[in-house]
Automatic annotation (TrEMBL):
The lineage of its organism: Eukaryota, Viridiplantae, Streptophyta, Embryophyta, Tracheophyta. Residues 8-108 form the BTB domain. It comes from Gossypium raimondii (Peruvian cotton). Pathway: Protein modification; protein ubiquitination. One of its GO terms (biological process) is protein ubiquitination. This is BTB domain-containing protein. SUPFAM superfamilies: Pentapeptide repeat-like, POZ domain. Transmembrane segments: none annotated.
Amino acid sequence: MEDSNLPSLVRLSIGGKKFCTTIDTLTRREPDSMLAAVFSSRHTVYQDSEKGYVFVDRDGKHFRHILNWLRDGVVPTLTDSEYSELIREAEYYQLLISHIGLIEGISSVLNKRKEDEKSPAELTHTDVIKCIQSERVKFRGVNLSGLDLSKLDLSFVDFSFACLKNVLFSRANLRCAKFRDVDAVGSNFHNATLRKEDASLIDCSFCGADLRCAHLQWIH
């Protein structure tokens, strides 16, 4: 089909579902996609001569999302399973060539969704303060992710097996605190006191933790 014979308005039949769009929509955002190739005479298309529909042998369930992406570049809000289906269609239509393709856009949405669904801390800042007023405080196996525990006296506290991701321990007193098998990824120990006298720091993950100016005293 030659460009000169193609009207600016295009009627598509995607697996029997009917759509109407323009050549500009199909070719402008993703010029190297399969759809752009079809309407640039690089592929053979099958057109119903009576009704004027160009037929594409794919499930038309998500094609409206494909068209909306080509029109405005916005990723639709769908369930995870629907995103999986849409990714398969995006791969078929080769919508991954532009600066931020549809597949990359979906991946960004899914990653953000996972971040938002992460379990919040089981205790609040106030809960922690109440707990440390008693003796022999234990937060064994407790999720304290993201809490601000800066400047608190947490000496002798047992954090064994706890989740301490992104916890702020800045200027906290952690003398003799127990950190056995904890996940402290991304935590901030800036200017904290971490004296290993009878404390335990065994099998801990401190990847990305900020230990700048932390007062570390190792006694063997």
